[in-house]
Specification:
Layout: H1 2-7, H2 19-39, H3 42-59, H4 72-108, E1 134-135, E2 140-141, E3 145-148, H5 150-158, H6 160-164, E4 170-178, E5 181-189, E6 192-194, E7 199-201, H7 204-214, E8 217-224, H8 234-246, E9 251-255, E10 263-268, H9 273-279, E11 304-306, E12 310-313, E13 321-324
Parallel strand pairs: 3-5, 3-12, 5-13, 8-9
Antiparallel strand pairs: 1-2, 4-5, 4-8, 6-7, 9-10, 10-11
Length: 326
């Protein structure tokens, strides 16, 4: 287990990200881990549990607000999630070791089983084929994500007033894991503030409470660009990095009414854009090169790209709910 822990990358602390926002990330990661536990997906569960423990022990503990008295209750919550993660990891350690030993035996026999154990949990014994639909750093194939296309137009309609006033609107795409498919079943519009070039969610505790009650995973987010092209700004890239750190398949949808493209569905390259963004300490709008600079993991790759794993469903086979918390 120590070897597995060392293989999970630590995230440099960003003092501009609040402890509350870090806590929301940990909470969401734990919700996802519990989903994987229920589905019997040991590999992805272990990966998220390791990331929770790493984030709390190596990142959050270095935050400048960590030792402030007024944050004592938040720190207790961080420690609780870390303890829960470590306890569960201790429970599944024998299973992980058994799978790893089995994989090594099969590898020696010349039998490569990609689905047996992702490379993030071993010393690259079972290799994964790289393709547009492969999360190469995790050694896992990207699962298909499905959402009802109608949901995009519903969101655009709900954002119409803000769009008319040149203010961005954002929403959360939440859903469930069904037979190895990620299915968006809910559009949640949280309380927020919007400007011409950014939007910020407020009262994330209310958002988390709703998702926890409905047992919903965060699968991505959606927002408008009232007067800007259909792309991810530096602020968008940083926002999305938090979602994709939890769920590699997480998507960022942009609706830009004035752009010829109008709708874009993106995610960060990995390795590449995700790693570079997670270590970037700048805030607000700032220049990002179009491609990952030389010397960084994934150098030469685009920062983000159009998603290859998303299916827009045009019939009513996928039902969805809309929750407006504003």
């Amino acid at each position: 287990m120590q070897r597995l822990f060392e293989r999970v990358e630590s995230v440099p602390v960003n003092p501009y990200i609040s402890l509350r926002r870090y806590l929301y990330t940990v909470q969401q990661a734990y919700v996802h881990a519990k989903q994987y536990q229920r589905k019997g997906n040991l590999e992805r569960e272990a990966l998220l549990l390791l990331r929770i423990a790493t984030l709390v022990q190596k990142t959050v503990s270095k935050h400048p607000d960590y030792s402030k008295v007024q944050n004592a209750n938040i720190i207790k919550e961080f420690r609780l999630y870390a303890q829960l993660a470590i306890k569960r990891l201790e429970e599944i350690k024998p299973l992980i070791d058994a799978q790893q030993n089995t994989c090594e035996t099969l590898s020696t026999a010349g039998i490569m089983r990609e689905e047996l154990l992702p490379t993030i949990l071993q010393e690259s014994v079972c290799s994964a084929t790289t393709s547009p639909n492969t999360l190469s750093s995790f050694g896992m194939k990207a699962r298909t994500m499905q959402l009802n296309e109608e949901m995009l137009f519903v969101f655009e309609s709900m954002a119409k007033k803000n769009t008319k006033n040149n203010r961005e609107t954002c929403g959360i795409l939440a859903g469930v894991l069904q037979n190895h498919l990620l299915v968006v079943t809910s559009l949640i519009i949280p309380k927020q503030t919007g400007m011409s070039d950014s939007c910020e969610m407020l009262n994330e505790e209310e958002l988390f409470a709703l998702q926890d009650k409905k047992n919903l995973m965060t699968l991505g987010w959606i927002h408008t660009h009232p007067q800007h092209p259909c792309f991810l700004s530096s602020v968008d890239v940083h926002t999305h990095a938090g979602f994709q750190w939890i769920l590699p398949e997480a998507i960022a949808i942009v609706i830009a009414p004035t752009d010829r493209q109008r709708i874009g569905i993106f995610n960060l390259t990995h390795p590449g854009g995700l790693e570079y963004t997670m270590q970037c300490q700048q805030r607000g709008h700032h220049p990002h090169p179009e491609r990952v600079p030389k010397g960084f993991l994934g150098e030469g790759k685009l920062f983000y790209e159009n998603c290859h794993h998303v299916e827009l469903i045009r019939d009513h086979s996928i039902r969805y709910e809309v929750y407006d918390l504003r």
